């Protein structure tokens, strides 16, 4: 009913601007238009206040006509009758989402296709057209840090987290203020940190990057300005970039790949511990919680020329208690381990020092002209939803999932004398306002037997794929097991660990 009136309205409005010959007819017409307009407005008002009745109008329709802005339209689950250009895209997206893949896979718009239709991308160890075929002796892959443990959360919040991108959305290079940063997204990020209490962002500059990776890069460059030309040939030596083993290997790779005159990878922090007090320029990476062992970390080096890059990718209540807000000069965060959207490649950094901020900003500008506007839109919608309930929903789900996984793994390995896990203590979490048990992103497993110096090989023989200790610059007696992958991956990992631990008991039985 409303639809008809609107159409009349539009026709009439068009006719106002049509040149007419007959002045009298014209006056009559204007009178009629006015009458119709008044009636239409009255009807609109009636419908707005009587939405529960027989009328089919919804807040979505009203938004479409621009007459009312309602932020509740997403939660109201209102009917959708007047969606026009976005309908086909929405139908396409929902049709793909409907493909079930037996609960062991996912279909994507831009994923595999069969006969022109989206096909299932199966989880590891599952196959067949609908991912229903399990391969029994398949190895559990716990290598990568793919944060798919949050996928069920987003599927349960499909309506509030979807975003429609028009064909003409933000085609230009810059935002309206000439920057490469969405100011609205910045506000939401700062609010999120305030709500979670994991970072003090006040008085700090913000930078956006293509994932944390690009920002780590920018940070090294930002903290190692080139020397004055006169110094280059004699007194100058490059800044030493270090991290404490076990550390994330990308720090070394990012430093080495430039082969720069300004900075140089110098390995494990402990080698330099006693030398940095007096002289020497250092950049120390501090990952807190640490990847791979998930311990909260502090810098090792002190001294007037020591600069620190805090990688806080995992400093969220899913993975650790939050004892207090981080408040250092250079802090890096990423969507990847917060919402699980590793594929969006979006991260941010806070820098206190203006000169450092400017050098980082200039690097980001030269390197990629800032973070993708599409990624920023996605981040905006997702984070807006996260902060809406003071971030309870996401972190309660995330913590519960990670906590349960850790407890199961711990229980399974508690029977073992051959393997041990890193020790993590319960701590008071200022976000949950209670003491929370460990819920690490990774298990840092040690092979205890003398002969098991290659822990990766021991696990590989038991059909478990881990990441070698040497990748983190420590002995191969250690391996990292990822606990943040999807449920199928975790279930299979736990199953294989149980098998391995039960084998351990058998020789004992024989000796009795
Ligand atoms: C946050 O940082 C600002 C600026 O450095 C400082 O004034 C404020 O006291 C800090 N807040 C907390 C809670 O530490
Ligand atoms: C550094 O100094 C401390 C004592 O100040 C000493 O115990 C330690 O062994 C030294 N470390 C290295 C790597 O030299
Ligand atoms: C944004 O990107 C443009 C390139 O289009 C660059 O010229 C400009 O310096 C960037 N602005 C900032 C604030 O980084
Ligand atoms: C499991 O957790 C308990 C309590 O924190 C701890 O004492 C035990 O050592 C853990 N087991 C393993 C295998 O790390």
From TrEMBL:
Provide a GO biological process annotation: amino acid metabolic process
Domain called Alliinase EGF-like: residue spans = 84-138
Q: Which InterPro entries match?
A: Alliinase_C, Alliinase_N_sf, EGF_alliinase, Ethylene_sulfur-biosynth, PyrdxlP-dep_Trfase, PyrdxlP-dep_Trfase_major, PyrdxlP-dep_Trfase_small
User: Which segments does the entry list as coiled coil?
Assistant: none
Q: Superkingdom of the source?
A: Eukaryota
Give UniProt keywords alphabetically. Membrane, Pyridoxal phosphate, Transmembrane, Transmembrane helix
So where does this one cross the membrane? Answer: 30-49
Q: Which cofactor does it need?
A: pyridoxal 5'-phosphate
Family, per the entry?
A: Belongs to the alliinase family.
Full protein name:
Uncharacterized protein
- Species the sequence originates in: Stephania japonica
């Amino acid at each position: 009913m409303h639809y008809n009136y609107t159409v009349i309205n539009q026709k009439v409005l068009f006719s106002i601007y049509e040149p007419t010959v007959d002045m009298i007819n014209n006056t009559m017409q204007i009178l009629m238009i006015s009458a119709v307009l008044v009636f239409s407005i009255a009807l609109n008002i009636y419908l707005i206040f009587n939405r529960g009745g027989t009328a089919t109008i919804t807040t979505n329709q009203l938004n479409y006509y621009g007459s009312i802005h309602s932020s509740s339209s997403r939660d109201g689950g209102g009917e959708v009758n007047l969606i026009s250009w976005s309908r086909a895209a929405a139908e396409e997206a929902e049709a793909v989402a409907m493909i079930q893949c037996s609960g062991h896979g996912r279909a994507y718009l831009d994923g595999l296709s069969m006969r022109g239709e989206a096909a299932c991308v199966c989880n590891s160890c599952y196959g067949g057209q609908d991912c229903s075929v399990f391969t029994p002796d398949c190895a559990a892959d716990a290598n990568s840090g793919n944060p798919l443990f949050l996928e069920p959360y987003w599927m349960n919040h499909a309506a509030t987290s979807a975003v429609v991108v028009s064909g003409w959305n933000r085609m230009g290079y810059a935002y309206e203020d000439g920057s490469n940063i969405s100011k609205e997204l910045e506000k939401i990020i700062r609010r999120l940190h305030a709500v979670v209490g994991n970072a003090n962002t006040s008085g700090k500059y913000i930078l956006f990057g293509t994932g944390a990776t690009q920002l780590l890069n920018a940070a090294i460059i930002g903290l190692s300005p080139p020397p004055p030309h006169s110094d280059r040939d004699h007194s100058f030596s490059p800044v030493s970039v270090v991290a404490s083993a076990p550390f994330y290997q990308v720090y070394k790779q990012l430093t080495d790949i430039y082969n720069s005159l300004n900075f140089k990878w110098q390995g494990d922090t402990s080698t330099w511990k006693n030398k940095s007090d007096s002289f020497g320029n250092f950049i120390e990476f501090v990952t807190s919680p640490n990847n791979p062992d998930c311990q909260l970390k502090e810098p090792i080096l002190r001294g007037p020329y020591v600069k620190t890059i805090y990688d806080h990718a995992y400093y969220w209540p899913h993975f650790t208690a939050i004892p207090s807000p981080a408040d250092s000069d250079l802090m890096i965060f990423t969507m990847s381990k917060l919402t699980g959207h590793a594929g969006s490649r979006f991260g941010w950094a806070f820098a206190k020092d203006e000169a450092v901020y400017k050098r980082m900003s200039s690097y980001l500008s030269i390197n990629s002209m800032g973070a993708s506007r599409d990624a920023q839109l996605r981040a905006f919608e997702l984070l807006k939803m996260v902060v809406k309930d003071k971030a309870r929903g996401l972190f309660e789900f995330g913590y519960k999932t990670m906590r349960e996984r850790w407890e199961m793994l711990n229980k399974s390995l508690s029977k073992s004398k051959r393997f041990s896990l890193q020790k993590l203590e319960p701590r008071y979490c200022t976000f949950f306002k209670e003491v929370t048990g460990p819920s690490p992103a990774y298990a840092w497993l040690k092979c205890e037997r003398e002969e098991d110096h290659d822990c990766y090989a021991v696990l590989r023989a038991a059909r478990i794929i881990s990441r070698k200790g040497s990748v983190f610059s420590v002995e191969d007696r250690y391996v990292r097991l990822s606990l943040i992958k999807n449920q199928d991956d975790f279930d299979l990992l736990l199953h294989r660990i149980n098998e391995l631990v039960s084998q351990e008991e058998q020789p004992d039985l024989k000796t009795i």
